[in-house]
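User:
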Amino acid sequence: MKHIDYSAVDITGGFWRRRQELSRESTVNAVYDRFSETGRFAALNCDWKEGEPFQPHVYWDSDVAKWLEGALYTWSKFPEEELKVKIDQIVDTFLANQTPEGYFNSHFQTQEQENRFKIMNDHELYCAGHWMEAAVAHYRVTGETRFLDALGRYADYIAKRFVEDKDTGFEVPGHEEIELALLKMYDCTGDKKYLDLSLHFLNLRGVHPRDLIEGRGWAKAHYAQNHLPVRKQTEAKGHAVRAVYLYTAMADAAEKTGDEELKAACEALFRDITEKKMFITGSIGSSAQGEAFTVPYDLFNLVAYSETCASIGLIFFAQRMLKMTADSRYADVIERALYNSILASTSLDGKAFYYENPQEIVPYLHTRDNGGSAIRWPKMQRSEVFSCSCCPPNIVRLIPALGDYICSVEGDTVYLHQYAHCRVDLGDGRTLIMETKYPSRGRITVTLRGGSARLAFRVPGWCTECKYETDKGYTYFDVEDGQTVSVDFPMKVHFYEARPEALFNCGRCAVQRGPILFCAEGHDNGANLRDLCISVRSRWKLGIHPELGVPTLTGKATRRVFEDDRVLYRQNDETRCATPVTLIPYYAMANRSESEMLLWFQWH
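Assistant: Predicted structure:
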């Protein structure tokens, strides 16, 4: 299946155009400014000395490389000179400080020259992979080869050390990333050496005992998905971001090589994540301990870790699976994560971010003395920068490249996976024009110009009232040059319940309209949100929040009344007080002062 690249997709209006404009106007600059203030860009000069501020950390290069990649995508759609100057400065600095053999790492070049490729968990190959992704983006956006050539030299040096000389302190990366980056280098250049090096790292994973992560206690090999060879892995384990980056590379490699065993492992892993270990928002990673997957159905909302990068990695993984098989299960997961966990990770003004995305907020619990226990409550408010600031630049590179997820082509069939007001160049003389107000409305109108095609519209999994016949979640229309086809997905309010094994949600429901989940905040509904009991039979009214400017759902609910505040317990009283309830999109939560937030409600 031919993937249509973001560069061939212009999002021209609607929901995602506004989000891309916010990223251009606010997010890309906000992250740049914070990284400048904390020394990340200056570190690229590789001249830091002991005693100076802003000591380069082992993962700082990856922060900069991701910002650079996102800035390139942004500049390709919104070409502004000021942004291009910043891009050029980073590339020039990298080239000026790359070693003759091709190596670059601002931490190791200033602090640990003797430890190059000796410490498995110190992110060298992870950083190298992000530089490679940025170099591919630079070449595709600018047409220049200098940065791509520089990362080609770096890849050659890595191959020399790990494949030829075998003089490194470990066999495979601690934090996966370079595997998928090398496959991007292969796509960009057509040079098989990049595919071979990626497969080298994939095939050695879970093979060498010396690659156990030291100092991780219970996690060890599982922490870095190094417990089994990749083709034998069927359960998502360990650090969630590392895991989905690995699974992305596995799926990409399976698609490129036709490796059915690797494909089967990817399918098993995808099902394990989405059927047993994914929060309803599309977030993954239940535990702060190891930032990790745990056991099936461990979806405790109050302490959910749900790192932003993990949701982004899940999108990458689902997209690679979609390239192998046109099945709406994969596109549905992309949609769920995009409209919920990804959007929630960034403030409405585009300047502040969540590292961990809370699935429920109860402020008074944050005042509890944990007595040194392992309980960790996700932050109630977003931050502009954090010490481990991997998530903000990941958002910077995802939003301007959203066109990557719109459609693909296989033979005469054009698959429409995600919906946005856009124009798509299919690369063969045909152009597709999509008009929609999605996600506020479910009508999608598509006009094809320049030839005929079979259009396959994804019928979203939430659209249970669908009137269309489907095959693996897609409905098909044969169209001629200039013909327009429309589909309409009813945007009703739906109520979701979790399996009984997901015990933290037993007896509760989540509220969703279209792809967007809605939550309640104390600002609009008062205290003790867990006591609210919403009426699923209420006539829910769609509106606009006067303060936040986002959609609202208003309906009916009840709650208990304890008139005597001295009473902790009482005999059961079925009397409840009727009360209106106002819900806002989950992505809009925590944009005011600290407040309770609830996604899963009692219901009647």
